[in-house]
Each structure stands twice: as structure tokens, then as C-alpha cells.
From TrEMBL:
Residues 29-158 form the Sulfatase N-terminal domain. PANTHER family: ARYLSULFATASE B [PRECURSOR] (PTHR42693:SF27), ARYLSULFATASE FAMILY MEMBER (PTHR42693). It comes from Saccharicrinis fermentans DSM 9555 = JCM 21142. Belongs to the sulfatase family. This is Arylsulfatase.
Length: 174
């Protein structure tokens, strides 16, 4: 997870540079960031995995930008996500640990003073969607739709049951 998270942060920087150049010529590129937890370097086909087929991810990697030597700035997922989502070193804004699932606590999550990449892209006319694990705060003010995303399908906390009893673990909003 560590290397891949940092890889995604670098990819974001490259995509944003590409975005600025493309905006000058009025062409807006599509931006796709795939962030996975606990994925090893060789867990995808384009990096040598033979036992788990990943043809779609391989195709994206082979037609896009790949970083083969990258590191994250934190060893767990929440702070790594915060760094990627903001483009900033997460300790600078106090996101030095995984947030707890605390829907009534505005301090458990990405500070509202931090701008997300979705908010930045929205200012440039982009529409964005977040899928899967959010883990950047469970208070209503920190929901993905309040942080620049137009759509969200996933779960707010750091983990969830794959077979929820009441269906409340997954969230879908437009």
C-alpha cells in the first residue's frame, strides 16, 4: 500500500500538470486515480503478477503514466489518502493517524480548511465521482459530496463487512 499510495500522489501531480496544459488548449483530459489498500508491487499483471489477472488495470497502466519507484508519506491508509486528496503532506494539517468512525465529531477526518483535488477540479468544470473506501471523515460536513465530488458510492469508515446485515455499510449519493 505504501508504494502505491505515493505512486498515486505522483500520478495526481502529473495529471494536474497535464490538466493545466490541456486547459490552455481547451481540451480537458479524463483523470482516473486508482488507490488500493494493502496492494503489493507485484499484485498486478503490469508489474509481474501471473496468478491474479488484472487486464483492465494493466491496460490503463500500459496506456498511461506509471511510477515504479515511489513511497508514501505515511504507513496507514487515512493519512495517505489525505495526502493524495490534498496534494499536501498530511502532518502539516494534523492528519497523522487514521480517523475513527465518529459521525458526530468534526475533528475525526480531513479538516474543512483543506482543499481536495475534487474541489480543485470542480472549479475547472470537471464532474467527479468517488467509489469505495472514503476514510476521510464520517461527519456530514466531511462526506465526499461536501468535499467536491458530484457522486459517491462506497463506505465512509476504514473498513466494512462485505455482507452487511442491514445494508447500512454502503452509501450512494448524487
Amino acid at each position: 500500500m505504501n508504494k502505491l499510495s505515493y505512486l498515486m500522489a505522483l500520478l495526481f501531480c502529473c495529471v494536474m500538470t497535464s490538466h493545466v496544459l490541456a486547459q490552455q488548449s481547451m481540451i480537458k483530459p479524463n483523470v482516473i486515480i486508482i488507490l488500493t489498500d494493502d496492494q503489493g508491487y507485484a499484485d498486478v499483471g503490469f508489474n509481474g503478477c501471473r496468478d491474479i489477472p488484472t487486464p483492465n488495470i494493466d491496460r490503463i497502466a500500459n496506456n498511461g503514466v506509471r511510477f515504479s519507484r515511489a513511497y508514501v508519506t505515511y504507513s496507514v491508509c487515512g493519512p495517505s489518502r489525505a495526502g493524495i486528496m490534498t496534494g499536501r503532506y498530511q502532518d502539516r494539517f494534523g492528519f497523522g493517524r487514521n480517523p475513527l468512525l465518529a459521525p458526530n465529531d468534526t475533528m475525526q477526518g480531513l479538516p474543512l480548511t483543506e482543499q481536495t483535488m475534487a474541489e480543485m477540479l470542480q472549479q475547472s468544470g470537471y464532474t467527479s465521482m468517488a467509489l469505495g473506501k472514503w476514510h476521510l471523515g464520517a461527519h456530514k460536513s466531511q462526506y465526499p459530496l461536501k468535499r467536491g465530488f458530484n457522486e459517491f458510492f462506497g463506505f465512509l469508515e476504514g473498513g466494512h463487512s462485505y455482507f452487511p446485515q442491514d445494508g447500512s455499510s454502503m452509501m450512494s449519493r448524487k
